[in-house]
Amino acid sequence: MRPLTEDELRSAFVNASADELRLVTLPHDFVLTDWDHLDFLAWRDPRTRSRGYLVAEIDGEPAGIVLRGAEGSSHARAALCNLCHTMQPADQVTMYTARKAGEAGVHGDSVGTYICADLSCHENVRLAPPLAPNEVRASVDMKIDGTRRRTEAFVGRVLETAGVPR
Hints:
Elements: H1 6-11, H2 18-23, E1 40-44, E2 51-58, E3 61-69, E4 78-80, E5 87-89, E6 93-99, H3 102-106, E7 110-116, H4 121-124, H5 138-159
Antiparallel strand pairs: 1-2, 2-3, 3-6, 4-5, 6-7
């Protein structure tokens, strides 16, 4: 991902109102972000735990979405994150929804998916189990690529039918 300034990051949000943009709290370590090793940037709002943010590059341009996490807990024992495909205890995966961009979002349309509750998908796919004899690292690289593609597709679903330049 290419480096972004705070202003570029704030202007990248496609489904946020002016009031919501003022409320965006950047990650506490934003100035230390290692952009060369990011496929996308995602974080929970430290002031409002039910809010999260995800920024991905779509056609070379940053596109950010505001996420809302579901309240409550699941009775399931385990759950699968739909972005990184990591199996987690159920309380570590949350249904996140994002209001669609443009006119569709104004009318209340939204999309949702199950995502790691702490939005740490980027790190989770890089936590590889030790390699077995004769095993190659390609499986981890494929997980990284798959996570990036699924994240971009989710952001794309927020953008579709919005008339937002992609």
